[in-house]
Amino acid sequence: MEVIDKARELLSLDGKVAVVTGGGSGIGRAICTLMAEMGAAVAVLDINKTGGEAAAEELRERGGKAIFVECDVRSSEACKAATERVIESFGKIDILCNNAGVAIRKSVVDLEEAEWDLALDVTLKGIYTLSHHVIPYMIKARGGAIINTASGWSLKGGANAASYCAAKGGVLNLTRAMAIDHGPHNIRVNCVCPGDTDTAMLRGECRQLGQDQKEFMREAANRPLARLGTPEDIANAVLYLASPMSSWVTGAYLIVDGGGLA
Question: Considering the domain boundaries, does residue 189 fall inside one?
Answer without folding.
Answer: yes
